[in-house]
Each structure stands twice: as structure tokens, then as C-alpha cells.
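Exercise 7. Predict the joint structure of the components listed below.
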Amino acid sequence: MRLSSLYSRINHNHSAPVWGRSRYRSLRLGLLFIAPWLAGFLLFTLYPMGMSLVYSLTEYHTRGPLEWNQFQNFINMFSDDLFWTALKNTLYMVVFGVPITLITSFACAILLNLKVKGQSIYRVIYFLPSIVPAVASTLLWLWILNPQAGVMNTLLGYIGIKGPNWLNNPAWSKPSLILLGMWGMGGTIVIYLSGLQDVSKNLLEAAELDGASWFQRLRHITIPMVSPITLFNLITGMIGMFQYFTQAYIFRGTGGLGSPLSSTLFYSVYLYQQGFQYLDFGYASAMAWVLFFIILGCTVLILKISNRYTYYAG
Amino acid sequence: MKARKFLLVVSLVLLMAITFTACGAKPEEDVLNVWITWGDNPAQLQALFDRYGEANGVKVVVSAPVEEDQILPALTGSAPPDVLILSGGDLVKSYAQEGLVVELSEAIDTGGIDLADIYDAPLAQCKQGDDIWCLPWGADIYALFWNKDAFEAAGLDPESPPTTMEELEAYAEQLTVVGDDGTIEQIGFIPDQAWSHSDLYVRLFGGFWYSDDGTQLAVNSQPMIDMLLWQQQFYDKYGYDEVLAFSTGFGDQYMSPDYPFYTGKLAMYVDGEWQTGPNFISALKPELNYGVAPFPYPADHPERANTGVVQGTVAVIPANVKDPEASAKLLAWIMSPEVVAEEMCVNANLPTSKKAAQDPCFMENPKFKVFVDLMGSPNASYIITTPLSLELNDAYGLVEEQVLHTGADPVPLLNQLQEEFAPKLAEALK
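Solution:
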């Protein structure tokens, strides 16, 4: 079918909203085909979301009736010090962790895009850590960052630096987790690499002939042309960081979840603690909705700002 | 079109056939599920419960160790275990408050469980007024471990552990070795080695963070302040960062031959009775020359000698079990002195049954007997639990961390904790 005739059919249907039998049949078939997904979405996404909204307005009891407490759960957050600590810790990871990971993975992607001998081997090496499960890599990093026997402090010792007590020092625990996260940035690197393949070689060559330096070509051609990729990585990275949980959950010092000194008490960790440990599902649900709106707000903000800086070749 | 209709009819018939076949399937034999949140040796636990199955014509399926995250869905859902055995009693009162577990008085009567045979201290953690929400199966109690070789090297009598807390402080100093660059090479005593032992220390200072009946919060009481300051000195003396770097540098080596107490890097510490059993020191460092003694008491309070705080595993019956009678019967069997003796003997834990404690296996090892005697001591106490236990423990843990690891003043922190949690406790106990 020619594209023009397809457009005309679509337009024709728009102007004629009365559906025929075949149209209903198509709809029925379409619904039937997506029924497994639809059932899953309604049962396991929409229904829990709706119920968590209800719970957020109640004092939840696992087996007793719900007690409405209007917006008390939301009001309680304002006076809950640990809530603010958890939010601040999470924002720290978003503000520092996401850009650092983006810049580093972009730099790695540029290096891995260089036409050098063994290019594919280097690419595999950089991607490998990202397929190691988060649990295993966190446990591994606990040893790498061990203050006495760890590889990191041993190496620092060779150059005369006394390494910190990484994960057990509140000043170093979050940077350590960012470092740990960077180890698994293979996925982001691959997305950047694919974006780099789309950077116009003609433009790069033309700029080179005009005498543009490597940095100028990077600054004025490569970076703008991969800006949609950067936007994608930024938004997914930000959402992932707001939901940061696994590594912090696995890493519990002697003080339990959030230690040392609540410096690794992230939003999702505190939400889990309130719901599944203290059985306060009403409060946990309210926290989940606040997180949802924070993420939504940040995503909309980034999308708005990005209009000015993102270049879509199409 | 006909072909499609035919296909549709065939599919429907097939679907109905499958459904009705499943509904009409012969029911499986009776199965009782026992969930245990710990268990180094699941096969041994299964073999133990198989004996109950054989004697009663049922199949008992033991799941051990069950992850913490699986428990809540099971207790609130439709497929709970028939008996649930928890590693500790921390959460029992919260479960009770939420109506997730059964009050056991009736099960105790019908099962003929002799409460007089259960040691007071472990049983107390299950009681709330006249209600009994759990039954203690195995018990743990803590004592002082000391490395005799390290004592000898430091010029101390290897057969004489400190008897008072003041002596312990002096010994700890003598046993600590600091290198020329200020790095700690060996340490005498770390008060919170592996985990917090504030429950034991605060009893030695004559108090607890609740009133005795568990209805009032006493988290900023004088014994709490004294207890934290006493622990703080062991960090303060050699530098908070230095001691912390030394202790956290051990990593997760609890069940490893490199555990600092086994290697002699840590001369004294607090640990439980299982260390003297077959799975720990005997298996990991059999040549270790060590001793065990009741934890020292304050010199001006000799009446507090042989203080111990009992913790341990507890059994509960979920509120939504399909056959409460079968659960009660199984619980009675679990709590019988013979079963308690056998299981605790295998795992080197303390039996909660007085009759079981007479089993020769608990008397053979003189080091283990130190713990048996401690549990029978008039100064054996227990951890008071409330519906707020876990939340308060976490909040207190943060205070302890600030005091011990950063040198913070405990008074304002404990006052703040008291202010925050006293109304919460009153609300929870309404």
C-alpha cells in the first residue's frame, strides 16, 4: 500500500466516526491480542497503584479495617527527620551520581569508538560488569573498598595516600556508592556508542577540513548530535537514582539499614523500612506517591529545559 | 467461519475439561508447613520434623531458612505456614497488634504444653499481660570470650578473665597494640563487635530502655547514659576513626577462620553460646586457645554478677492457618523437652525447657555450661519487646552509632529519642 493512500484512509476514518462491523472486529481482535498485557497492567500495575493511593489516606492495618486519616500521612512527613534525611541522600545521588555517570560513560563511549586494534575486546570488557547482578557486584565492592584489606586502599597506599574508611564513613559512603554504580554503566555506554554511529561523518570531515580541532568537533558536532541520547540517559538515570535501593539494601553496616549514620538511608530504603518492617503501609504508600510526583515533576522539567538543548536531526 | 466456530467450541471444551479435572483431582495427603527463618542445616531440620509426620500420618514440609520478606505476605495472604519459627521475638508484638498471629493460651491448654518447664527469661519476651503470643524454642545468651594466648603475650594470667568492668577496661588497654604510625594492630576489646550488645550492658548498669512492665519508655534514663558512655571510652581512647577502621576492616568474616578473635587481633569480645559448639571455633579454628566467662559486673555492684540477657528463636501460629488444631498439636510437639533437647544440642543453642537442659549433651562441654548456668542465674533477664520494638531498635541504633563512632554526647540524643518515642509507645499500647 502506498503511504499516501494509507494517510487518506486514516483521514477518511477520522472524518467518519461511525464504525462499521469490520472496524469493531478489528478492535475486538486488537484487544484480544493485547489482553495478556492488559490483564497484567490492570491487575499488577493500575490496581496496586489505585490501592496505594487509597492506603496513603488511611492508617493501614494488615488484617483490620482501614481507618481514614485524610492527609495525616502526608502531613507527618513534614515533621519526620528521617524522611528529609532520606530525601536529601537521594537528591545527592541524583545531583552528583547521574551527571558523573553520564559524563564518564560518554567519555568511555568516545574512547571505545576510536578505531584502534582490539576495539571490540575493549567494548566487551567495559560492558561485562553491567551483566554482573547488582547483588554480586555490591558484595564484591564491599571487599574492594574494605579499609584494611581492600584493593582500593592498598593501591592508594602505594602512592602514599591513606585511603578513607569508604563505606563506613558518612562522608564517603555516598561517593562510594556512586563509584560502585559507575562500574555497571556498560548499558549507558552501549546506548551512547550507538548514538555516536549516527553522528554525521560528512559534518565531522567538513569541520576538520575547515581546521576545527578535535575538541571543537566534539563540542559543536558530536555532543549536539548525541543530545537526544543524553536526554534519554539523563531521564532514565534520574528515575533509577530516585529509586535507588538494591545496593543500599545489601550494604548494611553494623548499624543496619541506612548506616553509617543514616548516610545511605535513601528514599526507597526508608519507604521499604516503613512498610515492610514497621508495617506502616499507609505512610509508605503516601511516600510512594510523593516520590511519584517528584519524579514526574523532575522529568517534565528536564523535558521542558531540554527543548532548547536537544537536537533532533529529523 | 465454520472452522473458526469449531475451533472455539473445541477450545472451550478443552478449557472446561482441564478446569474440572483440576477441581476433581484427588486431594493430596495432609501437609503441614513449617517455616523457619534460620537454619544452617535444613536437611537436619527436615529429618527432625519427618519424625512427627511419620508418627501422625501427615507430611511436614520444612522451609529453612525463609527470607524475612516472605513472611508478611504469608501472614496476610491465604497460604501461611502452619507454624512459623522466627529468629527472635522483635516482631512478635507488632504481628500481635496487627492480628497476624494467634494468642496461644488455648493452644497451650489443648496441646498440654507445660509452661512451668520453660525458663522464665525466654518466656517473658512472648508475654504481654496475660497474653502469650509466642513460645521460645531455642535460647541464646551472651558471655565474654577471651583469647588466652593474647593474655599471656600481654603478661596477664591466661586463666583469669576480668571479673569487674573496671578490670576489663584495664585489661583491654594492656591488650591493645598500636603501631608506630598510630595504626591499631591488636585491640583489647570492642564493645559492639559484630553487633550491638547494649541490651547486656544496660542490664549491668541496672536498667533497660523500657520500664520492667514494658509500658513506659526509659530510653534517657541514667543507666542508658552510663552504658553508652562506658562503651564510648573504648573508641575514645584510641581515636574513633582508628578503631572504626580497625573493626570494619574485618569485613563480613563472622563465619571464617579470619575472624579477628580467631586470629588474635581482638583479645576480648562478647558472643553467644553457639561459638562453643561444633560449627564455629571447633570447625574454623580448632587450635584457638580461648576461655568463656560471664560478662564482668560493675565493681560497686557485685550483686549484678552473672547477668545475662536471653534472646532466641520463638514459634508462633499465624492467625490465618487453615487448621488451628493441627498447628497447636505440632507446636506442642515442637515444644516437647525431647525435641527441644535434640534440636538445641545439634545446633549448640540453649534449650528453653528445664527438663531438656538436664540432657547430658548440654553438660559435656564446660564452655557451653557457662551459658547454661547463666540462663539459670537469677540475673538472667530478657529483652522487653513492644509493638514498637523494631522501630525503636533502629532509632536507638542510630544514637549508639553517633555516640560510639563519632564521640557524640548521648544525653541530648537520648532525650530526643525519648521525646519522639514516648507518645508513639503510648499510642501503640492503647
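Discussion. Residues 18-27 of chain B have pLDDT under 50 and may be disordered.
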